[in-house]
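Milestone 3.1: sequence recovery, worked example.
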């Protein structure tokens, strides 16, 4: 296939280096995020860049145990939105989450282009992190995106060492793409 190299290269790597990411790189990553497509140009995403060492360490204290590897990250982005920031489409379709996801996708690919590992996570305690980052209670903290230069796999669990070296796996296109209608094969 002829997909973008950044799409081909991006995967959920965990072996990070603690090497600081220069501010100009962080800015390019965030610029890519804010240039994402957006329904009615509402731009419902809000990102909190966490790279100041003291606050970063406080955030890392609230990561799930399975995300131990993320404690080496030199910067993390908190991904937030409010439902009212975006279009409320028919049948309860809240576009804020979709649009914010598109912005995160752009952020991830720019990070790969910059030579970083980019890994969004859901394993964290949102309430204390929202307090640390002074995120209002009615804002949804959707995810944290972990960034870092490639590092040594030695600090990873055996399971994660194996994952780092494994082939990237994706479902075949036929399992997730239908043409013209919903495939009968998708019904279980």
């Amino acid at each position: 296939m002829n997909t973008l190299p950044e799409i081909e290269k991006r995967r959920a790597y965990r072996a990070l280096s603690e090497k600081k990411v220069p501010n100009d790189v962080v800015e390019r990553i965030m610029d890519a995020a804010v240039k994402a497509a957006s329904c009615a140009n509402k731009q419902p995403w809000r990102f909190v860049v966490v790279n100041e060492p003291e606050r970063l360490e406080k955030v890392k204290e609230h990561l799930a145990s399975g995300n131990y590897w993320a404690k080496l990250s030199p910067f993390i982005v908190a991904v937030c939105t409010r439902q009212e920031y975006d279009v409320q489409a028919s049948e309860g379709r809240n576009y804020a989450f979709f649009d914010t996801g598109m912005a995160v996708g752009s952020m991830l690919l720019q990070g790969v282009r910059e030579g970083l590992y980019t890994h969004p996570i859901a394993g964290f305690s949102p309430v204390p992190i929202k307090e640390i980052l002074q995120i209002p209670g009615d804002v949804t903290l959707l995810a944290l995106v972990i960034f870092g230069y490639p590092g040594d796999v030695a600090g990873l669990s055996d399971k994660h060492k194996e994952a780092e070296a494994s082939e990237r796996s994706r479902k075949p296109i036929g399992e997730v793409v239908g043409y013209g209608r919903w495939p009968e094969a998708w019904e279980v």
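The chain has one domain: 14-152. The CA atoms of residues 15 and 46 lie 27 Å apart.
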